[in-house]
Amino acid sequence: MTVHFKQDEPDNSNRLDGMKQGVLGKPLPRIEGLAKVTGTAPYAAEYHIDDCAEGVLVTSTITRGEVTSVDRASVLSMPGVIAVVDDEKLCTRAAQGTANEAPMQGPGQVCYWGQPIALVVAETFEQARDAAKHLKVEYREENGAALDPNAVEPEEQEDETVHQGDLAHAMAKAAHSVDVTYTTKGHASAAMEPHAAIAQWDGDKLTVHASLQMLNYNITELADALDMEEENIRLISRFVGGGFGSKLGISEEVVAAALAAKQIGRPVRVVQSRQQVFQTVMRRSETTQRLRLAADSDGKLTGFGHEALVSNLPGESFAEPVLQSSHFLYGGENRELMLKVARIHRMTAGSVRAPGEAVGMPALEGAMDVLAEKVGIDPVELRLRNIPEQDPEEDLPFSSHKLADCLKQGAEAFGWDNGPRKPRQRREGEWWIGTGMASAARVHNIAEAKARVTLKADGTALVETDMTDIGTGTYTILAQIAGEMLGLDPEQVLVELGDTRHPRGPGSGGSWGAASIGSAVYVACKVIREELAKKVGISEEELELSEGKTATGESLTDLLEGNDLAREGHYEPGDIEDDYTASGFGAFFAEVRVNHYTGETRVERMLGAFGFGRVLNAKTARSQCIGGITWSIGVALTEALEFDPRDGHLVNCDLAEYHVPVHRDVPDLEVVLVEERDGAASPIQAKGIGELGMCGGAAAIANAIYNACGARLYDYPMTPDRVLAAMPD
Amino acid sequence: MADTITVNGTAYPMPDDPRVSLLDFLRQHIGLTGTKKGCDHGQCGACTVIVNGIRINSCLTLAAMHDGDSVTTIEGLGTPEEPSALQRAFLEHDGFQCGYCTPGQICSATAMLEELAADWPSDASESLEGRIAISGEEIRERMSGNLCRCGAYANIVAAIEEVAGGGRS
Ligand code: FES
Ligand code: FES
């Protein structure tokens, strides 16, 4: 039986706070953790499937044009080679998040360097890899493909455009103004588990073990790509070795494995190489951003301008949503916002952790630091003075707003020294030492979700949904929500995820997972509680459950009388989304040292204070935050995709040349969880936290670099060469 | 010639194809998938195993080069029923998120603590001679070959420090 709940009104009942088990929010270790630390958790490529052949993708060595011949004979005689697949259904790009339809197909047309064009299948991985290198492919190349985002006429994304008041006039009249242009380089998700799939057919039924974030969308994408019915497909992703956006949609290996398995009548495994993952999945677009801030003599904003240029391939709808939080974070009645996309032939641009704010916030918060200095006030104070009463563009209230609390609590915990600031106040040997701060904001997203909860006759519970846990803590928080509602130790709750045989969850992406699927589990549990209350002869509100018993001592097993009690919860966000602007907020504080002679920056300590609704598990929530802060360090200092200006190919397509932060780059990190209840965000009063931790953190580091050594940079990442070039004598 | 590789105490025949890396031998040939492939190029540390007591990237070496060697993988360090001290500490400190880099981190840390105990110096050491004091910075330096894109570093270091602290001050 399915219970549908559509949320049209805020739910401020905070029912979960009245439950008696007392496990929700507690810092419990992950329930799947032992499997992960002992290497017994199976990831997509690790299922043992009899008679499985190995496939290796072949990618294009031209930028744009046509494949005129694929010489199968050049490899079919090699040892162990079974087939070459260049079916027109092969996907040449990954699907964008929530695309719900097949990505670009047709390997005969090449649109970017490194695009998949064929799959070679052999008995062993070594044979397939060797053959893939030897496959002879001929092309008809079309020269002159646009490669430089700054050299083409960009398209305006009209739904992002805001013209409000007269910004030029406000800038001219302002007591203090800032007009600066920032650039950010492209980023890669670089999830540690490479994209992988094992496809297996049983008649017309297809099963794929894959590494995917959003099975509910992925099944539709795969069905569309293969031109088959969803009912005949089963996707399994029980453990996903990181996603960060790169596994939102299906990628090339999923479709290739399915087509190959069909063609050869055997299961086929396809694992992308690290270089292929870099080149064929998704990049975060580079950006150029102009920030204009106009303020009165007290630092109150009268004008706000943010214009951004991003890029993508022709035919892609995704445009890095750089301005997302700029629309509401600060006031200023005169506003100009505009987002433009340049169509170029570099690999696909798509979602990488915190699309939009990950690069928009570092630019905005850098500009705010420049403004604070001009106004001559503390940068924390500048932010506090500019928190708007309501959404400055839409006539909407905020569902909740914790920016001020995060700024104050963060400053206090960090030991922030208030007041106007001057660079170069502290030097130890070759090193300048300084501090910086920035605000955090990340829009709240939520999605429809379904989960089945079964209270078993033996007094344990089972939660089933096709939702994924990509390291986010889904397994554990669902056990906690069900445990809290049903009066069970979370150890008594079995959570089964990542299988499309289960009710459809929202998938993991856009930080919406926990609030959406948590709400579905909550809805299901609430109805189970109603049934139990009926048996006891009281109302659901009166029912107190803990340790498998009611307050009057009746055990769940007695109440169930040998029967399982199963309910499917179906949560749907309602009109409420149109009534509020909802966002997570926070503040970052960083201390860095910068070497006067080499320009090297080291982050000495960093703190983030975040308000994102109810905390479902203080341990996993904190981990999400430190993960985000770690990414902030990468954005600030090291991460940059570099493209060859001649053919647009990604040059640094591996983990040696694309520099994600490593152990020694990351100091001990401090996180302050600013608890709140946001009833308009979800019926469990929770918002997301997977991305907020990197939305602005890079600016805290950039601002600290300036405070330390006086080098004001406008280009991320702030590598030693750039810092040195900006370093005053 | 032994013609076998011993993994977690069990001897296995060498693979026929000389191109098989030690990593693929473990994962594909003998089914020990606890060791992970993150890059296949020695750039991420996910494939770290302990060979004759020393940690190495198993993707950077061919199985054929390990005739007679003794390999310990994550499965050999502990089990869900009997996890090692480091495995327990990772669980307690949430020293992982997606879990994909985790077996490599734990194998690496296990051998790294031995290196510290044997006073092998690192870039973070005060001196190349004498006793090495265990510090967060030593651990970070020595673990920098093990990437974690989830960004669990702060918790991983806390987990290792707990176990290191238990062994020696
Ligand atoms: S897989 Fe061996 S170092 Fe990355
Ligand atoms: S836990 Fe995901 S990469 Fe380390």
Walkthrough of the structure:
The complex is a heterodimer of chains A (729) and B (169). Chain A has 729 residues and is an alpha+beta fold. Helix content of chain A is 25%, strand content 25%. In chain A, the strands form seven sheets. In chain A, strands 4-6-2-15-12-13-14 form a seven-stranded mixed sheet, with helices on both faces. The longest helix of chain A has 24 residues, at 513-536. Chain A is globular. Chain B is an alpha+beta fold and 169 residues long. In chain B, helix 3 packs across helix 6 (153-167). In chain B, strands 2-1-5-3-4 form a five-stranded mixed sheet. Chains A and B meet through helix 1, helix 3 and helix 15 of A and helix 1, helix 2, helix 3, helix 4 and helix 5 of B. The complex binds FE2/S2 (inorganic) cluster (2 copies).
- Fraction of helical residues of chain B: 25-40%
Put simply, the count of helices of chain B is 6
User: How many separate domains make up the residues of chain B?
Assistant: 2
Order of helices and strands of chain B: EEHEEEHHHHH
CATH hierarchy, class of the domain at 390-444 and 582-726 in chain A = Alpha Beta
Q: Numbering strands along the chain, what is their spatial order in the largest sheet of chain B?
A: 2-1-5-3-4
User: Which range best describes the helical content of chain A: under 10%, 10-25%, 25-40%, 40-55%, 55-70% or over 70%?
Assistant: 10-25%
Distance between the termini of chain A: 72 Å
Strand order of the largest sheet of chain A: 4-6-2-15-12-13-14
For the residues shown, what is the average pLDDT of chain B?
95
Overall CATH architecture of the largest domain in chain B = Orthogonal Bundle
CATH superfamily of the domain at 390-444 and 582-726 in chain A: Aldehyde oxidase/xanthine dehydrogenase, molybdopterin binding domain
**Strand percent estimate of chain A:** 25-35%
- The outline of chain A comes out as globular
Q: Count all strands of chain A and give the number.
A: 31
- The named CATH superfamily of the largest domain in chain B: [2Fe-2S]-binding domain
